[in-house]
Design goal:
This protein has a single domain, classed as Phosphoenolpyruvate-binding domains (TIM Barrel, Alpha-Beta Barrel). About 50% of the residues lie in helices and about 15% in strands. An 8-stranded parallel barrel has the order 1-2-3-4-5-6-7-8, surrounded by 8 helices. Strand 2, helix 3 and strand 3 form a beta-alpha-beta unit. Helix 2 packs parallel to helix 3 and helix 4 packs parallel to helix 5.
Length: about 260
């Protein structure tokens, strides 16, 4: 896989679809990737991944020609730079509610002058086939992506300030948390009117700041609809759903 291919594709205006994995099986993540997804998100926040399985899965995704993306656990800023050192080429950070949150995220993900990321990407360089440290250093700030999740009312109020933060590359919508927040905990209707308005607001804030709009979608139909609305980094479903739905279809067929 070419180094930083996901960033290059997104920065040239391409719309990219990625998978989402929670089961913590590197083989499952690799298998999903080999079906043609440009990237695969390894979800450490709500998924079952630990450090060992993430390291293995990142290598498996590189081998499959798909970009490894890690969603870190809530407030686990320390793991951002570790995941990048392991070879992840994009980081999704949950609950970025203020410009201060965004600056803290960018600081650990980007090298100076954008941030304060500490040096040590030995595994990342090995996966990219690099031996000259300055080659990685020269391209890393542009090539590794920071995706700030907008999923609360506070984040929505501060979305323009978050989007304009130096070192933040994309805004990424968590629609289920957003719908929960906007309904005061009463619903998870990701297509409610107020949620749809917020989705468009976030997309426009990203575009106005020259950043990449991204969103999680439950299925391909919704993903294609979001692409038409201007989103360019779109994740589709998750491995739990893929396994469950596949098994359910087989059982249904057996029962006639």
């Amino acid at each position: 896989m070419a180094a930083f291919s996901l960033a290059r594709r997104l920065r040239t205006g391409e719309t990219v679809f990625s998978a989402w994995c929670m089961i913590a099986s590197p083989i499952v993540a690799e298998t999903v990737a080999r079906e043609g997804f440009a990237g695969v998100v390894l979800d450490q926040q709500h998924g079952l991944w630990n450090t060992e399985t993430i390291i293995t899965a990142i290598g498996a995704l590189h081998h499959a020609g798909s970009t490894p993306i890690v969603r870190v656990a809530l407030n686990d800023i320390a793991f951002v730079s570790r995941a990048l050192d392991f070879g992840a080429e994009a980081i999704i950070a949950p609950m970025i509610n203020t410009a201060a949150d965004a600056r803290q995220f960018a600081a650990v993900a980007k090298y100076p002058p954008l941030g304060e990321r500490s040096w040590g990407p030995m595994r990342a360089m090995a996966l990219q086939g690099r031996t000259v440290t300055t080659d990685y250093l020269r391209e890393a700030n542009e090539g590794t992506l920071t995706l700030a999740m907008i999923e609360t009312q506070s984040a929505l109020r501060n979305v323009d300030a978050i989007a304009s933060t130096s070192g933040i590359d994309a805004l990424f919508i968590g629609p289920y948390d957003l719908s929960t927040a906007l309904s005061a905990g009463k619903a998870q209707d990701v297509q409610a009117k107020e949620v749809e308005r917020a989705i468009d607001q976030i997309c426009q804030a990203a575009k106005a700041a020259g950043k990449i709009p991204g969103i999680y979608c439950r299925d391909a139909e919704r993903a294609l609809a979001m692409a038409k609305r201007g989103f360019r980094f779109i994740t589709v479903g998750n491995d739990f759903g893929i396994v469950r739905e596949g098994a359910a279809a087989q059982v249904k067929a057996l029962k006639g």
